[in-house]
Amino acid sequence: MNSSDLLRAMLDLAREAQLEVRAPSASSATEPGELLASAACRVRGDVWVVLSPADPVDVRLDVLAAALRTYRGDWLEQRWLPPAVRDRLDT
Q1: pLDDT, tens digit, for every residue of 42-54?
Q2: In the chain, what percentage of residues exceed pLDDT 70?
């Protein structure tokens, strides 16, 4: 599975796990030259995963994997996942 396919699979999984996935535009930065970084956080009880289009695919995959492990680990244990997705979550 290539990185783009893996990213799509992880995005689908995050949505199934009821994580709010957002991808802000490059113009969302508050100051000129400022770049947004991908991250996960809790907002009023909901988990948001913000994926910056400026970040490489591997960084976005790492953020998604960390959010899934941290916030939906029990849910993941009960699901069958493709081997490439499971490998990414385990690293």
Answers
A1: 989 889 999 998 8
A2: 88
What's the order of all strands across the beta sheet hosting 46-50?
Answer: 20-22, 46-50, 39-43
Residue 44 burial (CB < 10 Å; 0-12/13-18/19+)?
Answer: exposed
- Expressed in angstroms, the distance from the first to the final Cα of the chain is 16
8 A C-beta contact, residue 20 and residue 49: yes
Average pLDDT over residues 58-78: 94
Residue ranges with strand state E in 24-81: 39-43, 46-50
> Residue 20 pairs with which residues in a beta bridge?
48
Other beta carbons less than 10 A from residue 67's beta carbon = 24
